Amino acid sequence: MAAQISEPESQPPISSCRKKKSKEASFVEDESSHIDGSLMLQWMNTKTALRTLSRRCFECQRLSQRRMKVLKKLKVLFPFRHIWPTRI
């Protein structure tokens, strides 16, 4: 009985999931541009998050200032004694 040797099927080369910056770029140049792009994306996300946080803080500050103005107007309109329990 002759053993049949099967030849491995030729598979297409595995391609990268991302495109190269240029066809002449070396592996190191390609990887450095990929890392730079990742760092830039992280920085942009951080910047957006900080901007959103600062806007929320200023909005809360504006709302509290408006509430204080309303409370001051109410105190002027309704001058009554507070019925809060006193400290012991």
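Next protein, fold it too.
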Amino acid sequence: MSTTIIKITRNQSIETNAILFLEAHGNYTLLYLSSGKQVMAAASLKSFENILPKTNFCRPSKSFIICKEYIKSINYQLKYLVLNNKRVIQISRRRVPTIFDEINTHSLNQN
């Protein structure tokens, strides 16, 4: 996984490989880090979607962007993802085919 540094606030930057997933809160975004820490950023999820590398991140629903590296399992029938921290992320109906393709392609590239 390639590492990119993104600026969160004036004084704070985070490496992309430390991000588990991002959750939308209106015009703010809550970043969940692999260390267990949470960071609130005054930017929309859309702005992070434009910054984060598409090879490592995907957007399964309107409210979440996840790092593909931290996907533990996928339930294809009920259409949800389970992350390494046991967080369950539902995949929105219209994004199911795209997300499954992205994740499968990512998994194949890792092997």
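About the second fold: Strands lie at 5-7, 13-15, 19-25, 28-33, 38-41, 57-61, 64-67, 71-75, 80-83, 88-90.
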